[in-house]
Write a structure and sequence with these properties.
This protein is of the alpha/beta class. The protein has two domains: 27-127 and 234-297, Periplasmic binding protein-like II (D-Maltodextrin-Binding Protein, domain 2); 130-224, D-Maltodextrin-Binding Protein, domain 2, CATH 3.40.190.120. Helix content is 47%, strand content 14%. The protein contains 13 helices and ten strands. The strands form three sheets. It has a five-stranded mixed sheet. Strands 3-10-4 form a three-stranded antiparallel sheet, with helices on both faces. The longest helix is centred in the first third of the chain and has 21 residues, at 2-22. It is globular. The N and C termini lie far apart (54 Å). The relative contact order is 0.16.
């Protein structure tokens, strides 16, 4: 009798749980990200936006490298992650370009066959890519606004380039092919690093290779030179979502879910992402707090 009663109670619990799950509630979503602050910030922004619209979110932010987060998404450990579409495409051995729409389409073609199917939602105007920057005084002295402006004066400038630049196809080869750049005064330093930024400040170099949203750019007022020949892959940010999660949503909820995340992405531009990064990495503000403030300012949460 005890076994029968236990089974009966278990059956009742399943019915109750089923009733709670199907009573108009939205399925819990697991959101992950790469390990660096900017990826965690975007993951937190998407998470809070969804929570404000009735979703329960389980966070697994800061998983580690792209290899770790991609595996987590493909295996179903997480349902959603923010991705830099150019770098994501390169990770899957695709050919990344300076055209974000082309990168998105190529990445989608690959991810359709991964992990049972993964959808790339709309990419943001914001992107974080390799950026060549100068001090304001250098920009003024040589009238520099774009990379092609440096060609004629390249040997009057001291260049700080990435340590792998000589062999990196999107560095030395691309700069020479697109801009005719083969400067003679070059110091090799870690790209997107504090030493590169400090070398610019100290005038050890005049042109430095940083990441486009690196807080040092905003803090020091560096000028980002436009990559007018599009030599660097476009790394706009887009949410990747597992198709099996989307399948759990009703048609109306799926439409609203995608529209919400697309509207959040559409509001994030590169200058804003840079500013938010400064708040986190320079002012030491909490990632969740920065996300909340931005979402409130843009009307996504109250």
């Amino acid at each position: 009798m005890r076994n029968i009663r236990t089974l009966a109670l278990g059956a009742m619990m399943l019915v109750l749980v089923g009733a709670c799950s199907s009573g108009g509630g939205k399925p819990t979503i697991k959101i992950g990200s790469d390990g660096f602050y900017e990826s965690k910030l975007m993951g937190e922004i998407y998470a809070q936006a969804l929570e404000a619209n009735g979703y329960t979110v389980q966070r697994d932010l800061g998983l580690g490298t792209r290899a770790v987060s991609a595996a987590a998404l493909e295996s179903g450990q997480i349902d959603l992650k923010p991705e830099y579409i150019g770098s994501g495409l390169a990770y899957y051995k695709g050919t990344a370009t300076g055209d974000p729409a082309q990168n998105e389409a190529a990445l989608q073609a690959i991810l359709t066959g991964k992990g049972g199917g993964i959808t790339v939602l709309n990419y943001s105007p914001a992107q974080d890519q390799n950026a060549f920057v100068v001090r304001k005084d250098t920009a003024t002295q040589f009238n520099l606004t774009k990379m092609s402006d440096t060609t004629a004066v390249q040997n009057q400038l001291k260049w700080g380039l990435a340590t792998d630049c000589p062999t990196n196809p999107v560095c030395a080869a691309a700069l020479k092919s697109a801009y005719g750049l083969a400067p003679t005064n070059v110091t090799l330093l870690d790209a997107c690093s504090t030493p590169m930024a400090q070398a610019l400040v100290k005038k050890t170099i005049d042109v430095g290779e940083l990441c486009s949203t690196q807080p040092d750019i905003a803090v020091n007022g560096f000028v980002v030179l436009q990559d007018d020949k599009q030599t660097q892959p476009a790394d706009n940010i887009a949410p990747l979502i597992r198709n099996d999660y989307l399948a759990k949503l009703s048609d109306s909820d799926k439409t609203a879910f995608e529209a919400l995340l697309n509207s959040v992405s559409a509001k994030m531009d590169t200058s804003t992402l840079t500013s938010l990064g400064t708040e986190i990495s320079v002012q030491n503000k909490d990632v969740a707090t920065v996300a909340t403030e931005w979402l409130k300012a843009n009307g996504f949460v109250k």
